Amino acid sequence: MSGKVTLVGAGPGDPGLLTVKGRAALAAADVVVYDRRGSPAVLDLIPGTARQIDVGKEASRHPVPQHRINQILLEEAQAGHSVVRLKGGDPFVFGRGGEELETLARAGVAFEEVPGVTSAIAAAAYGGIPVTHRSFSSSLHIITGHAREGASLSIDFDALVRARGTLVFLMGVTAMPIIVQGLLEAGMDPDTPAAMVENGTLPSQRRCDATLSTLPRQAAAMGIHSPALIVVGGVCALGRELCWFERLPLHGKRILVTRPRARAGTLADKLRSLGADVVECPCIETIPILPCPAMEAALRDLSAYEWLAFTSPTGVETFWFCLRELGRDARHLGGVKLAAIGPGTAKALAERGLTADLVPGTYDAAHLGGALADAARGKVLLLRAAEGSAALTDALAQRGIAYDDIAVYRTLYLFPHTRALREELEAGKIDAVTFTSASTVRGFLSTVGADADFSRTVGLCIGEQTAGEARKHGIPVRVAEKATIDSLVELVSHSFLGEQRKESKEKP
Ligand code: SAH
Fold first, then answer.
1. Residue 88: CB within 6 Å of ligand 1?
2. What angle do CA 304, 309, 311 make, to 5 degrees?
3. Residue of the CA atom closest to atom 24 of ligand 1
4. Among 216, 218, 339, 352, fewest CB within 10 Å belongs to which?
């Protein structure tokens, strides 16, 4: 049976601007055909099970020619696959989407098109420029600044000037001086507001505010590169007042998230929504120890324990899995009391219909140990990482509380980027690294090398034990007030608040 091609607009770069329908198509794809212009954060949404074909460059570093792309789409669909062709912005706005669909239509291959958010509107919007506004313009013109090979620009500048609308030029960085000259020669006022937005909607976005006559000089001074938009018209004057995106508290800050990917979601997303350029670099991975005879034996004889204590959601997940494997459910817990190290772990219990009887005031191993020692009369069962902190068992042992400490998962250290990451770090290009456990510190060190120079970054730590591990290795640290993800996010934004103010004061 023949497959199908879905042409999906990926939006201008911010992964939040991929449509719901586009995201669903990606999730269901067998094959994804994309090119290098795609934003890395959007490409991260491609499921691991899908085969990826990068048509942006081949071994020779030349883009794959259009006729070859058309052929790839055809062949993959005819082989019965569900193919997503991902294109920047909207596929039909200077995206050659029409050409790709024509080939499919002629060959009788099924296809669909999912429109995307075009950079022509969105990059301007993130630069604080509404492309139409009742006081300034009543039409919007989207123009290519790219000439066909060997030809010169064929733009009717007289018609554009006469129309008095907002002009948005795509692919116009190289030809910008020629475009400006064309508009001036056609009689446009040299003081007409004009702007360029580079890397629009991405954390690296920059905006150049100018007038038509000063744009070439100002853009050159800033070194504006592709991809960038040129916007010409009265609406550009609003950019300074409305540029909300560049004012986000973490805009321009590059922050490394070291948690395992499955758990990076919330932290990375929260930092992104504050404008941070988040680098996801999972330095550790947790592997459940299954089967786990020690845990099975303890669970069979659960009435021997007064307390069952967890130090992470992973511990809860592994315990629950094992319980179900034994053919049991929550009723099996009977009167055993439940302790959780913090709200994240308590939430993992709550998701299984279980309420934690004890959560210490400070969310770390030492405080959990102290609180358990205060509360316990009988034996305690600890289901936690093989590398769990001794602070917990020490606290119990000191007070003569009996316990069984069973390792139910292991932490693996990953080696994702290594050299490139270390270079960025030492060059001061990583403003902060977030650590959510002592094991993420150790994983990070094995990634970049413990002898790296950490003086140009700061480790933002979820709690004291994590910070202690980072300090030991000479990483400058700050510690979140409470050991929760929200508190860590607050720490990150507070850490850069002063700098933002300083920067904005310096501006005239
Ligand atoms: N189909 C795309 C446009 C493809 S043409 C869309 O609808 O957005 C490529 C041009 O789009 C670039 O040369 C640049 O002018 C513009 N562009 C794409 N992404 C951009 C971004 N993030 N910021 C600014 N301009 C961008």
1. yes
2. 155
3. 228
4. 352
